[in-house]
Structures are given as structure tokens and as C-alpha cells.
């Protein structure tokens, strides 16, 4: 099949629940407010009049947004995939009728784009505007339009001369300058050009503490936990100021882990106290700064979990460490479940089910999306995963989406 036929680049339309959160900031206070709204009941107390019922319903935009979704649609919303995972095209560079039909059939919560999908500014703006429009048509919800744009060696947009934007450079170099304001300015720069293109999520900043020369060496701000923490917090604020959702990664910290999770299982020695003294410091700072999303890595932390399971699939890491110890109430997302650290020991279905059981909200790029989706649907059908567990994550995801609502291509 050739590339998708383009349709008109319709701009984002906001009605109903979205209007209730229009103009919401991405700062921590706003996300907390959205999470609070997500937890409100859509039913008025016994004996309340119709006006009171309407007031409570208006106070629960998340509940209103998801009320009409089928179980299968709700589960689909918990996946972020590559565009090629839902459209039978070698490389997707447009969103046309094939994408519209794909999102009707499989209304995923988000799509992550890579360098091969990004040709020039006009092409990206049309593609992202269309995919947003199709998501609205399918389920009445925005879609997470994500990219990895850290700067330096990981810059899907800035590495392409067609976009005419400067690469802000490796975060190692930024960290070496010791100026947190410079880190914040770099995030603002990246967020501004991403928002202009229509992206609403950037899988950055890297919050890993890493020694020079390691796998994460150039992507990390450095090997000093406090310095990395200050840089990460500044970047969280920088992204928020430009209206782009950011994601601190790779919890609980893979900088000192042995191996490369892209191709093999990796591990990190140490107890919870050991991690708290080094790895967790930047993530705690990110949470305090209001980071809306945290990506959990695939490292094995036997000293924490007592097993060799990846952190991304461990309730001891997602529930006890991230939510419990750090008090994170935003969206938890796995690192790509297509990485060797996961596929070496688990099928796509097994990994997706384990991720939700661990407390993850979003499942990122499984090795086989259809198999992973069916695995979760089967787990819900059998009662292994309760529908309440699905709604818990769905509410967090939709609260995030509504906080990011803005016209596609607007820089805010």
C-alpha cells in the first residue's frame, strides 16, 4: 500500500468537556486539579435536584468524556503506538482515509512519530492535524501526538535540515554548564517548535543520572544527582510554559544499569535506600515541578523487587516507589514494550497485561499491537484485570489529554 492520501488539515474543534478545561496550564497545580476532577462522581448525592446534578456533571469533564466509550475503546486508549502499527504502510508520512478508518477501528490513545515520518513542516502539520481530527471523530477525544525530541543525538525534528530549527545539543553539554536556566531555555525552545508543528507530547527530559561514557552518557545531564535534579525540574517547567506535555524518563533510573535495554535485559544493583540517594533524586524533583508523565524503564532491580522482572512490569516500582514514595499522581507509561529487555522473556500479550497489573497507565509501542490489545481484552474478559482498573488509568490519561487541549500547530 502506498502512502496515505491527505485529507484537509482541519483544525482542532473543542466542545463539551474540552471547553471546561480550556486554557488549562500544564504546571503541576493544573494537573493535580485535572486529576481531582477525574476522581469526582458524575452522580449527584441522593435527593439533589437536577441543577445540582448538572453542576456535578460539569465538574467531571473526564467522566463526561469517557461515558460513551465501549470497553474495547477504553482499552485502546491505553496504548501509544507507532503510526505503522495501525496503518498497513511501510512508512507513514500522511494521515488520510486509511488512518481515519484505523482510528475508527482501533482508537488508540496516542501515536509516537519518528524521523522517518517527518519530512517537512507543512507535511507534519497536515498529518498531525488530520490524525487529531480523526481521533475526535472516532471517540470525541484528543490524541497524544508524541515524539522523542531530547536534543543532541535524539532529535527527530532538529536533525532534519528541512525543519530549519537549531539542535539544542546533548543534555550532557547543557549539564556541564551548571546553569539550570539554560536547561529550561532548551526545553522551551524544543517545546515551541514541537507545538508549532502540532505535537503535544515530548518524551523528554531524561532524568537518569549517568556516568560519562555510559549508554546514557550523552543524553543525561550528568552524574551528580542534585545537578541533574535541578536541570530536570527546569525542563519540566520549560515544557509546561510552552503547553507541551513532557515525560521524565527512565524511572527509576537506567544510567548506571548494565547493558542496553534496546536489545537485552538490564539490571541495577542496590536497595531502595541506594536508589533514593542517587537515581530517585531527579525524579522526585520532576514530580515536585509538576511533571505530567513518567516513563518507567525496563531495568531489573532485584534489590527492590526481589525478582528479575523489569521495573516497567513491577508493582513494587510503579506502585510502591513511583506512586507511594514519590507521590506521583500523573500518567505512568512504559518504555517501549518492543525492546529486547522485554521481548526476550515475554510475549506482547503477556507484557501488556503485566504492565497494567503493575499500575501502568499507558502501554508504549508493544512488539505486536494487535496481540497486546487482545491480551488485555482477554484479561478483562476473564476477570484477571477488572474494568475498574481500566477506568482508573483511563481517567488519568484523559485528564492529561484535556489539559493539553489546544489548536493543532499552536505554540501557546
UniProtKB/TrEMBL annotation:
The Glycoside hydrolase family 3 N-terminal domain, residue ranges: 71-399
Superkingdom of this protein's organism: Bacteria
EC numbers on record: 3.2.1.52
One Pfam family of this chain: Glyco_hydro_3
Segment forming the signal sequence: 1-32
Enzyme class: hydrolase
GO molecular function terms listed in the Swiss-Prot or TrEMBL record: hydrolase activity
Catalysed reactions, as listed in the record: Hydrolysis of terminal non-reducing N-acetyl-D-hexosamine residues in N-acetyl-beta-D-hexosaminides
Record key words, sorted: Glycosidase, Hydrolase, Signal
Family that this chain belongs to: Belongs to the glycosyl hydrolase 3 family.
Protein name in UniProt: beta-N-acetylhexosaminidase
